[in-house]
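Model the whole thing, not chain by chain.
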Amino acid sequence: MNPLVKAVEYAVRGPILLKAGEIEMELQRGIKKPFTEVIKANIGDAHAMGQQPITFLRQVVALCTYPNLLDSPSFPEDAKNRARRILKACGGNSLGAYSASQGVNCIREDVAAYIERRDGGVPADPDNIYLTTGASDGISTILKILVSGGGKSRTGVLIPIPQYPLYSAVISELDAIQVNYYLDEENYWALDVNELRRAVTEAKEYCNPKVLCIINPGNPTGQVQSRKCIEEVIHFAWEEKLFLLADEVYQDNVYPKDCQFHSFKKVLYEMGPEYSSNVELASFHSTSKGYMGECGYRGGYMEVINLHPEIKGQLVKMLSVRLCPPVSGQAAMDIVVNPPVPGEESFEQFNREKEFVLSNLAKKAKLTEDLFNQVPGIHCNPLQGAMYAFPRIFIPTKAIETAKAHKMAPDMFYCMKLLEETGICVVPGSGFGQREGTYHLRMTILPPVEKLKIVLEKVKDFHIKFLEKYA
Amino acid sequence: MNPLVKAVEYAVRGPILLKAGEIEMELQRGIKKPFTEVIKANIGDAHAMGQQPITFLRQVVALCTYPNLLDSPSFPEDAKNRARRILKACGGNSLGAYSASQGVNCIREDVAAYIERRDGGVPADPDNIYLTTGASDGISTILKILVSGGGKSRTGVLIPIPQYPLYSAVISELDAIQVNYYLDEENYWALDVNELRRAVTEAKEYCNPKVLCIINPGNPTGQVQSRKCIEEVIHFAWEEKLFLLADEVYQDNVYPKDCQFHSFKKVLYEMGPEYSSNVELASFHSTSKGYMGECGYRGGYMEVINLHPEIKGQLVKMLSVRLCPPVSGQAAMDIVVNPPVPGEESFEQFNREKEFVLSNLAKKAKLTEDLFNQVPGIHCNPLQGAMYAFPRIFIPTKAIETAKAHKMAPDMFYCMKLLEETGICVVPGSGFGQREGTYHLRMTILPPVEKLKIVLEKVKDFHIKFLEKYA
């Protein structure tokens, strides 16, 4: 067996989810538990938590799937127009034909137009857009191309700690060197460029740090980076000739009024040609998050800036081997970047649905922060963005010792107990990385408000009992 | 840049397709050519060639996409029942939720039931079924897990020559050792177990041959393996403790009356417990080929037999990192394995559509063989299965020299000339591998009959002129 594969870890669907599956089976077999259902707050899976799909997106994809519906009076004209345009760009006018390896042309054009609007007119070239099978696929592919060298010249990839474990998994699989930089928990999980500098300086002793991964808004940490921070990071990447990977899949998920999403691309261009013509950047987006939550479609795109033409050629070749991203996911991506606009028949309903999801998420972000911070021994930074809470949990020494006796990380022990006693499935902080001696958990805020309140109350009760038990 | 990535080649979407794209652009810009359109016979992309989707499959996927349609009287009840069942098995009853990493449970159950029916009752366990993002994804993932060792103990992967270039691409990316075994062109491209033995024996000098890849029906060669041949291969794999990868994506594409598809799984079980409890096997299927040709959905499955539980765990982990295969592709796969049955409302139309596609393919297979064999300097084996012709083409010495002067493989030179002069895009045999000094091309037989005749006439005229020019 491949030792690199063996070394891969992926906590979001790791042992805790296997255990959750076992418990669900036991419940089905009628085994009595102190709860009646398992609540999977381990993964950002909006629809599984009851969020409804955006009607317009589904109408367009259904029309593309079964074009007979183009004659049906029950579909709005704007949806039909979108579907006709997508089908016209597909081989044989069918979602069943392979698309170009880079994705359907007109969808890449729509992505470029979306980026230009988002970034206040900074130009975007459809040739730089690659549609992907979710953001994960894009991130893995670009990392695969960039990694090289052996020994001390092996590529080092800088990732935030805490991170989303796709990064550590891919780095491990590629036998690249993971270089950690720590986000500042005391300062709302901000990225401090001095910490980046420390990480790069130390890494140069044992590898060739070449790639810098940023997750903004943060997963699992939920911070939204300030414009100033992004400028500093770009300047640092320019100085150190680092390739920037900007994971921006939560760009629509920003909640407090005083926070705003700034794309790395926009800031890069606003910093002037010295930066915008030199710093290599790939940024990622997806159908899975935002207000649409279409995880199952595996739609996504990446935009690359200043990529060497030879690397671009390699990228297309590697995408070609897998033929193309799922075309229905590409169609879904098109609606994310090209939604109804004011004046179109579907605009009002679309906007109502979108605002409903986003305002609820904002409410739940605040609720979660507030409720966690009422619990003794739990501290939760504000959830400025994304869809997770990553509170710090105090674990008593006796519990840490018990965990170690079970050969478990203390926060894994905590999360397992939480699952067994309440049916709530969350992921231990150790799956994302955390400063030595600190413990966390990641929980999604996706359950509906009333259910989320119950979940948080249950976590509170569990935590208080846990503290008592291991006092 | 990763040198392993640089070494990857994928001819089906290689330089010839880039050139075809350039020519299409020139045609669009009004540049005059001796033809008015580029015909992309380089890839098995049925819908792009005008094949119509199977109505029932699209109805079910549309119903799953936009469940409001479940109330519409214009959809048949059997399609609605399929859609309701799939949705019930999805998180939040939505195609937009992530599925389990291994795929939606009820779809895996349907796959297992399909395999049992196909294999005359040989049992299939849903736990052994993994839904994938097309067959390519399954093949890459399993190879990634199996490859290990360094130097002389590096894993050797046996592949047929000619092969489908996904295999060489993945082997190259994984830095595994490609071990070629040659199919016997003089004997309808049959697989000779003596040739397998030669290949393994020689390979043991420089690597650890551990995996044996079989493509049946053959791509690009179109042969259908006899039951006897499969038995011999399984016996050989058992003797040599080889892991069998059976690429069976063309299992529905078998044309002559005296040919029959035998799955490796079925033959393995029929050979008795000594084999069926020991030989490790993974077999692959897809929504992309057969009579449905739904390439764009990226649906597929693999069934694994005798996989060690630890490797199974690793497999689920690696699939988890990518979260799940596209759920709409999983739904499409469900209809491939669970189509309407006699007595159901949609059966008649489904069956008519299926037979139309398959009988046309059979007709085109014969037509292609016959027409190619009328051309002096072209020899084409019978197309027993799949959807390609792989004729041997005689290239005169003068043309070989000209090609070499252009630093091109002689058959690449030939195919480039064919593309430039006729607009027909096919792939040179060198992209699939062929015996030294022989030349071939791969062409799909997917264009509609009348168009295919024109294509074949054009190839004939081109070939005759080519022979004259380089005589």
